[in-house]
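Deviations from the work plan: none for this task. Representative record:
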Amino acid sequence: MSLRAEIRAAIDDVTPPAPTLQHKVEAFVVANGRDRVVPMHRPRTQWSRPFRGPMSLVAAVLLVVLIGGLVLGGRLLRDLNAPPQTINQAELKRLESRPLRAMPTVRPGDPCPTSPLTDVSAHGPEAVLLGDGPVYSTRLGAQFVITNWGTWSVWSVLVDTTKASGPILIRARDLQTHAEVVFGWNPLTANGQAGDGIPTGRATGTDVVLGQTEHLYPEVVLDLSRPFALTKAGDWPIFKSFIGYPKAAAGCIGFQIDGTNFTGTNFTELIVVS
Amino acid sequence: MQRVADVKPSSASQQVSESTFADLLKPLIEPGFRLALAMLHDAQAAEDAVQEASFTAWRKLGRMRDQGRLRPWFLGVVANKCRNARRKRWVVEVSVGVPEELPAISLEERTLRGTDLRRAISRLSHDDRLVVVLYFYLDMPVDEVATVAGTSVGATRARLYRAIKKLRPDVAIEEALR
């Protein structure tokens, strides 16, 4: 059987007879039936002719404005999401490429797990902090701001620089709802001060905190070369991050902390109680 | 929206009467329907495509210089309507192609082979499917197929070869073209 015969048979098998189609089409096309409606383009009206010149000019101006807006908006977006320049970008990328580790799931009503408490009084003003190093943190919730989006608080960490070097990347999740915890700039201080955790990553949205627009970043990076200005000589550096979690989150938060010279396996999950 | 009766054909086509329609377009309705059905795999959509194509053809008939080329020209209009119909269906259904289960006459091997072949044809691109249907199903010569497809004879031939290779990779081109 030739391909031609096969194709003909294959299509004919499913081709129903249409004996009335010719008449239907003819009636559709030439009959003067008033009840058939077909979509047609309206004939071009002439009233607009005098306005065409000025309207073209307006359209051209609008186009230029639109293109300019897109360019500026693109730059703004690029700048907004640009990684911090004081950080070694290659190292930051390597840290960002580390997968998020599995964290414990907390069911509603269950207690929030906590990291072990460590005496760090010999290395700074704090006596006891959560974690077993080289990054130790304060609890959340001593001071907080509630917004339409969620809850914001300042979160401090102390870094044992004898064991950690290079940038430290921190990402966090709510252990009950798995909602992503975000980072921003503290609205009460100037952005980018020494000792500030630097929010980074692609901003996922905005919130208004204390009258200021806060971009929601999925991660924060610590620049160990720029510790808090009042850190005493010989003390471990302190870093403060502005941290937020959405309304849906329970506030029991697990942190994954990745440094260049320590693996996430030992120190990634620092759990604190809000 | 405008009623058909309110739509004036172009001045040239005003001379196209009912008898002209019967003489010129009527013989093309059936091949037009077969083409549309092979392209769309939907009888209702095929009828609609032919109806719309006929209306378009009727309005533009007076502009046709060489009415000897009416058949490829009309089938070209049908093919365009099919392309548009498939686009509309894609938008509505977010899927293109024939239903997985097409009507089968019996369980004979021929039918199964036919189903496979239909499915393979339906997976061709619009342009590939068009040349296959026109050449193999409507028995049109390659130059007329080229006119309908709006491409050169060489390009049409190349498209046909490519389509054959997709449908029957193991069959020699010369054998398939017989």
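Chain A has two domains: 3-81, 89-273.
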